[in-house]
Amino acid sequence: MMVLSFAKDVLVSLPSLLRGRTPGQLIIQTTDFCNATCPQCGMRKQEDFKRTRLDVDAMKRIIDRGAKNKVKALSFTGGEPFLFQKDLMECIRYGRDKKIPYIRTGTNGYMFQNSNKQGFVEKMREFAKELKKSGLYTFWISLDTWDILEHEKNRGLDGVVDGIRTALLVFREEGIFPSANLGINRTIVKKKIGLTSTSSIAEREQFYEAYVEGFRRFYEFAAGM
Ligand code: SF4
Fold it and tell me: Could you read off the pLDDT of 118-132 as tens digits, one per residue?
């Protein structure tokens, strides 16, 4: 069914594609609040600045405009979009009702912490059902590296990988298949290597090989989760 609707969307978009135009994507940055500590990010929680968020009415007005312009994809980003889950879910459903086919959002995974607490599985089931009903097309979970401790240290989210594993079992039962969102950064390789304009061919090759190996291990790890 999903393949058929994708094929239909491709056909509908064909005239634009032939004119060299890709189907439009609307990205709404819902907030710059975040509860993670990623060193590469200016929105990490330890940064001291005045944080903001879009209210539901503002997001709906943006979605209306996107729907009028026939965008095919609508993405909600942050910060951490799920810090304001009620508003986020309302806007996802609103986008669905406006017939935007590919609605996407994701999380740094903070809700998967404390998975050994009583009621975690039930909470995840409820969460999965809500995602399923909302019309969300893609749900991503950030993952920085195959090295569990490194990932959790990077994000400041202890125990999150165990929780993701448990939640994935529940999600599959509910028909939700999250994707791993990899930020391409230094955590993918273990060695400290860098390139400059004067790097030799041997150094460039070493850099290339290290990243190929990093990606290989990452995908192996993510696929095995
Ligand atoms: S989770 Fe995303 S928004 Fe938050 S600190 Fe990390 S990279 Fe930044």
Answer: 999 999 999 999 999
